[in-house]
Sequence to fold (214 residues):
Amino acid sequence: MRKFSRDAAFPRTAGSGRGLQPAPALDLPRRRGAAAGILTAPRWALLLAGLALATSACGSSTSKTVTTPPPPKHTATPPPVPDRKLASAGDTAVVRGWADALRHGRLERAVRYFAIPSVVSNGTSPIKLTSRDDVRFFNRTLPCGAKVLRVEDTGAYVVARLRLTERPGPGRCGAGVGGQASTAFLIRRHHIVQWRRVVEPAPDATPAGPQTDA
Fold:
Protein backbone atom coordinates (compact mmCIF):
# COMPACT_ATOMS: atom_id res chain seq x y z
CA MET A 1 0.00 0.00 0.00
CA ARG A 2 1.50 3.33 -1.01
CA LYS A 3 1.23 6.54 0.96
CA PHE A 4 -0.86 9.47 -0.24
CA SER A 5 0.79 11.88 -2.65
CA ARG A 6 -0.55 15.23 -3.79
CA ASP A 7 0.54 14.22 -7.30
CA ALA A 8 -1.52 11.02 -7.20
CA ALA A 9 -4.17 11.03 -9.89
CA PHE A 10 -7.62 10.46 -8.48
CA PRO A 11 -10.02 9.30 -11.22
CA ARG A 12 -12.59 11.98 -11.97
CA THR A 13 -15.06 9.54 -13.58
CA ALA A 14 -18.19 9.01 -11.52
CA GLY A 15 -19.02 5.46 -10.50
CA SER A 16 -15.68 4.01 -11.60
CA GLY A 17 -14.86 0.50 -10.47
CA ARG A 18 -12.84 -2.49 -11.40
CA GLY A 19 -14.50 -5.49 -13.03
CA LEU A 20 -13.66 -9.11 -12.53
CA GLN A 21 -11.38 -10.63 -15.11
CA PRO A 22 -12.57 -13.88 -16.66
CA ALA A 23 -10.68 -16.95 -15.56
CA PRO A 24 -8.48 -18.56 -18.27
CA ALA A 25 -10.03 -21.52 -20.04
CA LEU A 26 -8.84 -24.89 -18.87
CA ASP A 27 -6.95 -26.99 -21.41
CA LEU A 28 -8.56 -30.33 -20.70
CA PRO A 29 -6.74 -33.46 -21.98
CA ARG A 30 -8.59 -35.50 -24.56
CA ARG A 31 -10.16 -38.74 -23.46
CA ARG A 32 -8.43 -41.76 -24.91
CA GLY A 33 -11.21 -44.26 -24.38
CA ALA A 34 -13.26 -43.37 -27.48
CA ALA A 35 -10.29 -43.38 -29.86
CA ALA A 36 -8.89 -46.59 -28.41
CA GLY A 37 -12.26 -48.29 -28.77
CA ILE A 38 -12.34 -47.58 -32.49
CA LEU A 39 -8.81 -48.82 -33.10
CA THR A 40 -9.17 -52.05 -31.10
CA ALA A 41 -12.71 -53.11 -32.18
CA PRO A 42 -12.82 -56.84 -32.99
CA ARG A 43 -12.93 -57.73 -36.68
CA TRP A 44 -16.21 -59.61 -36.30
CA ALA A 45 -17.92 -56.49 -35.05
CA LEU A 46 -16.87 -54.63 -38.18
CA LEU A 47 -18.16 -57.45 -40.36
CA LEU A 48 -21.54 -57.43 -38.64
CA ALA A 49 -21.77 -53.71 -39.15
CA GLY A 50 -21.11 -54.14 -42.84
CA LEU A 51 -23.75 -56.87 -43.06
CA ALA A 52 -26.32 -54.63 -41.42
CA LEU A 53 -25.64 -51.91 -43.97
CA ALA A 54 -26.03 -54.37 -46.82
CA THR A 55 -29.36 -55.62 -45.46
CA SER A 56 -30.80 -52.14 -45.11
CA ALA A 57 -29.76 -51.35 -48.67
CA CYS A 58 -31.98 -54.17 -49.98
CA GLY A 59 -35.12 -52.32 -48.86
CA SER A 60 -36.42 -54.82 -46.31
CA SER A 61 -40.00 -53.90 -45.46
CA THR A 62 -39.85 -55.56 -42.03
CA SER A 63 -37.17 -53.28 -40.59
CA LYS A 64 -38.23 -51.05 -37.74
CA THR A 65 -36.72 -47.78 -36.68
CA VAL A 66 -35.79 -47.72 -33.01
CA THR A 67 -35.98 -44.27 -31.49
CA THR A 68 -34.16 -43.50 -28.27
CA PRO A 69 -36.42 -41.51 -25.97
CA PRO A 70 -35.02 -38.09 -24.98
CA PRO A 71 -33.65 -37.75 -21.48
CA PRO A 72 -36.07 -36.30 -18.93
CA LYS A 73 -35.98 -32.55 -18.58
CA HIS A 74 -34.98 -31.15 -15.23
CA THR A 75 -36.12 -27.70 -14.23
CA ALA A 76 -33.14 -25.67 -13.07
CA THR A 77 -33.55 -24.23 -9.61
CA PRO A 78 -32.02 -20.75 -9.31
CA PRO A 79 -29.55 -20.29 -6.45
CA PRO A 80 -31.02 -18.61 -3.39
CA VAL A 81 -30.50 -14.86 -3.20
CA PRO A 82 -28.74 -13.90 0.04
CA ASP A 83 -30.67 -11.59 2.33
CA ARG A 84 -29.19 -8.12 2.57
CA LYS A 85 -28.98 -6.73 6.04
CA LEU A 86 -29.38 -3.02 6.70
CA ALA A 87 -26.44 -1.34 8.35
CA SER A 88 -26.64 -0.25 11.97
CA ALA A 89 -28.07 3.16 12.80
CA GLY A 90 -24.64 4.37 13.96
CA ASP A 91 -22.82 3.40 10.76
CA THR A 92 -25.63 4.76 8.61
CA ALA A 93 -25.45 8.10 10.43
CA VAL A 94 -21.72 8.38 9.70
CA VAL A 95 -22.19 7.65 5.99
CA ARG A 96 -25.13 10.05 5.64
CA GLY A 97 -23.36 12.73 7.65
CA TRP A 98 -20.27 12.61 5.43
CA ALA A 99 -22.29 12.54 2.18
CA ASP A 100 -24.59 15.39 3.25
CA ALA A 101 -21.65 17.56 4.31
CA LEU A 102 -19.81 17.05 1.03
CA ARG A 103 -22.95 17.57 -1.08
CA HIS A 104 -23.61 20.93 0.59
CA GLY A 105 -20.01 22.10 0.22
CA ARG A 106 -19.13 21.78 3.92
CA LEU A 107 -15.66 20.42 3.28
CA GLU A 108 -14.27 20.73 6.81
CA ARG A 109 -17.28 18.93 8.26
CA ALA A 110 -16.84 16.11 5.71
CA VAL A 111 -13.14 15.85 6.60
CA ARG A 112 -13.92 15.34 10.30
CA TYR A 113 -15.74 12.07 9.52
CA PHE A 114 -12.41 10.45 8.52
CA ALA A 115 -9.99 8.80 10.93
CA ILE A 116 -6.27 9.56 10.83
CA PRO A 117 -4.76 7.51 9.30
CA SER A 118 -7.31 6.14 6.82
CA VAL A 119 -7.26 4.33 3.49
CA VAL A 120 -9.07 5.38 0.30
CA SER A 121 -9.44 3.86 -3.15
CA ASN A 122 -11.45 5.64 -5.83
CA GLY A 123 -10.78 3.19 -8.66
CA THR A 124 -7.08 3.17 -7.75
CA SER A 125 -4.85 0.99 -5.61
CA PRO A 126 -5.32 1.73 -1.88
CA ILE A 127 -3.81 5.04 -0.75
CA LYS A 128 -3.04 5.80 2.89
CA LEU A 129 -3.98 9.24 4.19
CA THR A 130 -1.73 10.14 7.10
CA SER A 131 -2.76 13.72 7.88
CA ARG A 132 -5.80 15.98 7.98
CA ASP A 133 -4.44 17.80 4.92
CA ASP A 134 -4.39 14.49 3.01
CA VAL A 135 -8.02 13.83 3.91
CA ARG A 136 -9.00 17.38 2.96
CA PHE A 137 -7.29 17.09 -0.43
CA PHE A 138 -8.98 13.73 -1.14
CA ASN A 139 -12.45 15.07 -0.37
CA ARG A 140 -11.84 18.26 -2.35
CA THR A 141 -10.85 16.28 -5.46
CA LEU A 142 -14.07 14.23 -5.51
CA PRO A 143 -15.98 15.77 -8.45
CA CYS A 144 -19.50 14.79 -7.36
CA GLY A 145 -21.66 15.14 -4.32
CA ALA A 146 -23.87 12.23 -3.32
CA LYS A 147 -27.23 11.49 -1.77
CA VAL A 148 -27.45 8.23 0.19
CA LEU A 149 -30.13 5.85 -1.06
CA ARG A 150 -29.45 2.91 1.27
CA VAL A 151 -26.69 1.49 3.45
CA GLU A 152 -26.26 -2.28 3.82
CA ASP A 153 -24.06 -4.41 6.05
CA THR A 154 -22.12 -6.99 4.01
CA GLY A 155 -20.11 -8.37 6.92
CA ALA A 156 -16.67 -6.76 6.73
CA TYR A 157 -17.91 -3.45 5.34
CA VAL A 158 -21.05 -1.37 5.05
CA VAL A 159 -21.86 -0.49 1.44
CA ALA A 160 -23.72 2.69 0.54
CA ARG A 161 -25.70 3.07 -2.67
CA LEU A 162 -25.40 6.72 -3.73
CA ARG A 163 -27.07 8.97 -6.28
CA LEU A 164 -24.54 11.43 -7.68
CA THR A 165 -25.15 15.19 -7.62
CA GLU A 166 -23.31 18.41 -8.29
CA ARG A 167 -21.76 20.08 -5.26
CA PRO A 168 -20.19 23.43 -4.42
CA GLY A 169 -16.46 23.65 -4.94
CA PRO A 170 -13.97 22.85 -7.68
CA GLY A 171 -14.76 20.29 -10.32
CA ARG A 172 -17.98 19.28 -12.03
CA CYS A 173 -19.91 16.04 -11.87
CA GLY A 174 -21.30 16.76 -15.35
CA ALA A 175 -22.74 13.70 -17.06
CA GLY A 176 -22.45 11.76 -13.82
CA VAL A 177 -25.34 13.67 -12.21
CA GLY A 178 -28.26 11.34 -11.56
CA GLY A 179 -26.14 8.22 -11.91
CA GLN A 180 -25.61 5.77 -9.09
CA ALA A 181 -22.42 4.54 -7.47
CA SER A 182 -21.52 2.32 -4.54
CA THR A 183 -18.87 2.86 -1.89
CA ALA A 184 -17.71 0.46 0.82
CA PHE A 185 -16.95 1.96 4.23
CA LEU A 186 -15.08 0.49 7.17
CA ILE A 187 -16.21 2.48 10.21
CA ARG A 188 -14.65 2.36 13.66
CA ARG A 189 -15.56 4.58 16.61
CA HIS A 190 -17.86 6.65 14.39
CA HIS A 191 -15.08 7.50 11.92
CA ILE A 192 -14.31 6.30 8.40
CA VAL A 193 -11.22 4.10 8.46
CA GLN A 194 -11.53 2.87 4.87
CA TRP A 195 -13.38 4.37 1.87
CA ARG A 196 -13.42 2.18 -1.25
CA ARG A 197 -15.38 2.58 -4.48
CA VAL A 198 -17.00 -0.73 -5.48
CA VAL A 199 -19.12 -1.90 -8.40
CA GLU A 200 -22.37 -3.16 -6.86
CA PRO A 201 -23.24 -3.82 -3.21
CA ALA A 202 -23.13 -7.57 -2.66
CA PRO A 203 -21.39 -9.72 -0.04
CA ASP A 204 -19.04 -11.25 -2.60
CA ALA A 205 -18.33 -7.98 -4.42
CA THR A 206 -16.95 -5.92 -1.58
CA PRO A 207 -13.23 -5.85 -0.68
CA ALA A 208 -11.87 -9.06 0.80
CA GLY A 209 -11.72 -7.73 4.33
CA PRO A 210 -10.53 -4.84 6.48
CA GLN A 211 -6.83 -4.17 6.74
CA THR A 212 -5.51 -3.73 10.22
CA ASP A 213 -2.69 -1.30 9.39
CA ALA A 214 -5.01 1.66 8.72
Notes: Confidence is low (pLDDT under 50) at residues 12-58. The chain is about 25% helix and 25% strand. The first strand starts at residue 2 and ends at 3.
